[in-house]
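Re: the 87-residue chain
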Amino acid sequence: MARSTGPILAVGAITFANRSILHDNPPDLRIPVGTGFAAMALALIERANSQAAVGIAWIALLTVLFARLDPKTPAPIETLLRKWNGG
């Protein structure tokens, strides 16, 4: 397994869970499909330049945690902080 696969699969899992579980939106099957394609693409890029592929995967993970992908759905960090503070 490529070193970029773990972080990119975490991106997909966090996005899917934030949208479907934490905010009760209908499951979007484009997320797992897109995650699979991204993992394959990064594995191929990793053969040419491993540091770049791993860096892209980690930047994607940080972006998914802190940025809103859908304007109507809060980012996972926003959601968890709101639940932590009892709101």
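The two ends are 40 Å apart (CA to CA).
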